[in-house]
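Dear support,

I submitted the protein below through the web form. The confirmation email said the job was done, but the results page showed an empty box. After a refresh the structure appeared. I'm attaching both so you can tell me whether what I see now is the final result or a partial one.
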Amino acid sequence: MQSGPREILTPFRPIPLIVPEGMKHNEFFNSTENLNDLVNNNGLLMNAENLLLYRKALGHSTEFDCSIIYNTSKTILNPLGRPVRRTQVAENVKHVWNRMNQIIIDYMLEQYPDPNEALILAGEASLDATWPLTSPGVPSIRMLHNHFVVFRKEELRNAKLADADNPNLTDGGQHSLFQAYMRDVYREFFNKALNLKILKPASDADTRIGLTGYPQGLPSWEIQGGAKALKNVHFWKEYDEVLKGFIDFYRTFFSQVSTHNAPILPDVYFPEQVESILLFNNDFMKTAKKVRDHCIVDAKYANAIRWQPAFKQLIYRNDAGKLIVTISQNSIGNAITELLGVVVNRAPDAEIYAKREPLLIGRLLEVRRRLIEADLGEGIATSYWTKE
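What the results page shows now:
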């Protein structure tokens, strides 16, 4: 079978939202009113830390698909002031969130033990709070949230091949600035800055899903110990170290794009490595100049740049059953599934969705039961399910 990105069609039930006249959809989606709808119609569980587990109404998959959002809509009314990555979250919230992640991932692996049967992923995409709310490509809910998705590989095998030139596909070899021009220094910085013991660097061959051929060229790590390691708090600390390293690289690079020979940023996580590896590397500085010169003469190009860290970081299972961590620069408008070569087209079809809904909800309610049992929140009642 030919390897290549796949394009699938996922049905959903149309959402009966009334957007006030004169307000753009993505402006409304950031409002408290919209989050109320998300809780009341799709909410599964909420806890004291304001972490909300919910069904994805506009989902990626009807097999298994849910998210946890750090619902700060009522505590931080300014959408631009809300946390958009884990490094901005209080430790007690992050601790609870990590436990929730572990339980949900464990459930997915239990229900889908065969890597040939299902593609499993769990991860998050940054929601860059520096763009105007009306900019194209801005995520619909400007709060930190992550995704838990399962795709049946049979569906992917039967799906048509996606256009390999689709700009939304996160292809490290074609669309990522870091991979295209600074691949060596990018890898060197991760290898020398991070002190990892549970995560070990993985080869491209180990990371790639044979069916789709993705991810491509991204820094990746194998989780030694597999699912058991997710119960170790030190794994989640290392998971954050990967993010911190990415943030240092991203911010340092775009500080040089913004300002010629900018000084080292005062709040980087790995100052010694930033200075010795990045700011003294000719490819790194040459590429910053290339982008800066382009920004000066091309207004559209400059407007498209995400000046603050924009990323996708996820845990997924490879073809051999190993758990892999990877991180990527976030392209404009793409979905987290596209990091693994799965392009999802959503189509309103209440009839088809209704046929698949009972099994989907059954799985989500079982996950909720396990979270409640672990004292990680209380159930939410909607018109589709009860509180318990």
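Response: this is the final, complete result; the empty box was a page-load delay. Residues 233-258 form the longest helix (26 residues).
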